Amino acid sequence: MYRREFSQANQSVITDNKTLEREINLAKVIQSKLLNGEKPKLDKDDISGVSIPARLIGGDYFDFYPLPNGRLRVVIGDVMGKGIPAAMLMILTRGAFRTAAESTQGPGETLTAMNNALYKDLRSLSSFVTVFCADWEPSTGAFYYSNAGHSLPIVVRKTSELIEIPKIKGVMLGGLPDQVYKEEKITLQEGDFIFLYTDGIIEARNREGDMYKEGRLIKVLKENVSKTAVEIETVVIDSVTHFTEGVAQRDDITMVSMKVGKDKTDISSFNSPLV
C-alpha cells in the first residue's frame, strides 16, 4: 500500500514539474515576443533587437518607441534580481514605459511618469529598476537623455576619440517618490557610435574572479568604431566571452548600439547572456 501511495505521489510531482516547465517556457516565449516585437518603421533607420536571458527568462529590458515628431525614444533598463521575479517586473516596466512614451514630451518626463506609476509596486516588493531613456532626432543629430541610476552610454567619434557626455544623476525607479528627472543633450555627428549597456558586461568575471570592467569595453569600442552597429556588438560579445573563458555568468548582457551614418542612422540592439 505504501509503495502504491509513494508511486502516486512521485507521479504527481513529475506531473507538477512538467506543468511548471511548460509554464516557464511559455513565459519565456511571451517575454521574447514583448522584447522582439515588430520593428519601428522609420525613414532611413535600420533597427533590430534580440533578447536571450542568462536564465530561461531575465530582467534586462530595452525598447524603441517611434514618436510622432520624428524622434525615436530609446530605453534600456535593469531590474534588481534574477529569474521569474525580475522578468515579471520587467514586463511591468515595459508597460509603464509604453504608457509614458505616449503622453510625455521628453525622456525626463518619461522617467518621471514611470517612477510615479511603478513606485508603490516596486517599494512593496523591495525592488528597483535602473533605466536610461533617450530621444534620438535623426534630422538634427540631437540626442536628448535622462537617467534613473543607470550607466551612462559610451560615445566614440569616428576618429576613435572618446566623448565624455555630460553626467546626469537620477534616483533609480522605485527609489524615492515624486522624483523629477532632468534632461541633457548632445549632438551626434556622422560616424559617431553610441553604446548603451547594462552592467552584465562590465561585471562579467573570469576564472580568477576579475571583472571585465568599463576600460576594457571602451578599448574594444574605440578599436572597432568603423564597423557597423551589429558588427561592434558581435565584437563586444566575443571579447567578453574570451575574457570569461567559459565561466558561467550570473547576469544578462544587454546593449543598444547606434551608428550615425551620412545618409542613415544604423541602430541595433542585442540582449544576451554569457554561458
Automatic annotation (TrEMBL):
GO terms for molecular function: phosphatase activity. The keyword Ligase does not apply. SUPFAM superfamilies: PP2C-like. Keywords: Hydrolase. Coiled coil: none annotated. This is PPM-type phosphatase domain-containing protein. Residues 42-260 form the PPM-type phosphatase domain. It comes from the Bacteria. Pfam families: SpoIIE (PF07228). It comes from Pullulanibacillus pueri. The keyword Electron transport does not apply. InterPro entries: Bact_Sigma-Reg (IPR052016), PPM-type-like_dom_sf (IPR036457), PPM-type_phosphatase-like_dom (IPR001932).
